[in-house]
Amino acid sequence: xxxxxxxxxxxxxxxxxxxxxxxxxxxxxxxxxxxxxxxxxxxxxxxxxxxxxxxxxxxxxxxxxxxxxxxxxxxxxxxxxxxxxxxxxxxxxxxxxxxxxxxxxxxxxxxxxxxxxxxxxxxxxxxxxxxxxxxxxxxxxxxxxxxxxxxxxxxxxxxxxxxxxxxxxxxxxxxxxxxxxxxxxxxxxxxxxxxxxxxxxxxxxxxxxxxxxxxxxxxxxxxxxxxxxxxxxxxxxxxxxxxxxxxxxxxxxxxxxxxxxx
Length: 262
Hints:
Pathway: Amino-acid biosynthesis; L-tryptophan biosynthesis; L-tryptophan from chorismate: step 4/5. By secondary structure, the chain is of the alpha/beta class. It is 45% helix and 17% strand. It has a single domain (2-33, 49-261), classed as Alpha-Beta Barrel (TIM Barrel). The chain has an eight-stranded parallel β-barrel with strand order 1-4-5-6-7-8-9-10, surrounded by five helices. The protein has a two-stranded antiparallel ribbon with strand order 2-3. Helix 2 (23-32) packs parallel to helix 6, helix 4 (72-81) packs parallel to helix 5 and helix 11 runs parallel beside helix 13 (249-261).
């Protein structure tokens, strides 16, 4: 399974990280830093129109390399110009070719809230995300299971918003037990990376109206976005759909306008 492989590699990577910098060291650096004020990620998604989280990513397990000439700072500057509401930065190195430094540099360039998109499996990464400058993190129910509640509570206690990501009804039930403020419905099955846009429609009926709902993955055409926008959701997360339009900002502007208005 792809997800199991990603998590196993992440565990090995964390063993090395913890030797290079201990949790105690990270907490100490957070306490000494004067530049870790969080931007309100959830508020950025509460708009009259559909909100957009623009993602910065070089690759994915299903698509391989998406952007050959990849410069996250350049992409961040483009996003800063556009009518998007928040930015997601992939930091997972082995399968998505991300880096922690991408998030740090993006946060310094933009005024929008920034999400660290990674596979959080250890509390160490929550503190790490705070030190990197993230305003929000992704907590995947399929990965965390019963640990979800304590991870959510810890992240909230240090000023991080969380997108609690689900793919099916069982995962949603686990998420709803902790009362998350933001739920991300992933239309992509992380076991085999197949996509079904109906997944959002199938799950939203179980979620309370005051919860911010984000539809993630698989939206490519304007028709896809029209369908998703017709549902009672607050926003969408767009990765590949933007990454393949980076060479033409005017095209991206029109794409965003059409998503929100047509």
